[in-house]
Design goal:
This protein has 206 residues and is mainly beta. It has strands at residues 16-22, 25-30, 36-40, 47-50, 54-60, 63-68, 74-80, 87-94, 97-100, 103-107, 114-118, 125-128, 132-138, 141-147, 152-158, 165-178, 181-186, 191-195, 202-205. It is built from no helices and 19 strands.
Length: 206
């Protein structure tokens, strides 16, 4: 579908999650916690990349990063976009992660805490001991929710673990960063926008 709402076209005739689009290719999880596929934006070339149960995916460069497990969290892996080179990155169970500038930022769903590691799995470093989730990263900062893996208060912290800052003390979930602003759901499923310094909070939809 175009951004003006015209030319709506069915691409996959099943429920899909975790949609990532790179050029003319869509990467997604089929059904909730299912296999990972890629397909062309015109609906052709559907290819399974990873079988089993998968929860989260994130595309970065020529790689797809994903969690594989039979619960809401799983171990972190990566695979090339052509389906080769499956690599386990960590034994930690993770429910949320993001990849930025050669680093993977993720939560440890069992022990709690915010961690980072290089995209080859080395250099694991703890950045925050609090239980967290809904992780996103951009421009030297990590944005995340402290509380549980679903909802929590909105914080940011530098990628070296310094300058931890509270941005919103209400509940937040599903953080996205667009043009220097944070968009997220609050505890009442209202869509909120806020500046990255915590100012200018506005409700967009309710």
């Amino acid at each position: 579908m175009r951004t003006d709402g015209s030319e709506k076209t069915n691409v996959v005739n099943k429920a899909v999650y975790e949609i990532n689009i790179v050029g003319d290719t869509i990467y997604y999880v089929e059904s909730y916690g299912g296999a990972i596929y890629k397909i062309n934006t015109d609906g052709s070339g559907k290819t399974q990349l990873v079988g089993g149960q998968n929860r989260r995916i994130f595309t970065e460069g020529d790689w797809i990063y994903y969690t594989n497990g039979n619960t809401l969290d799983g171990k972190l892996y990566k695979i090339r976009a052509d389906g080769n080179g499956v690599t386990e990155l960590s034994d930690d169970n993770c429910s949320s992660f993001n990849v930025s500038d050669g680093w993977v930022y993720y939560d440890d769903a069992e022990s709690g805490g915010l961690f980072k590691m290089q995209t080859d799995g080395s250099g694991k470093t703890e950045l925050d001991t609090a239980q967290c989730g809904n992780i996103n990263a951009a421009d030297g900062w990590i944005y995340y929710c402290i509380g549980n893996t679903t909802y929590g208060k909105l914080y940011k912290i530098r990628t070296d673990g310094s300058d931890k800052t509270l941005l919103d003390d209400g509940e937040c979930s599903w953080i996205n960063i667009i043009n220097g602003k944070l968009y997220y759901w609050d505890g009442n499923t209202n869509l909120i926008v806020i500046n990255t310094d915590g100012t200018g909070r506005q409700m967009i939809t309710n």
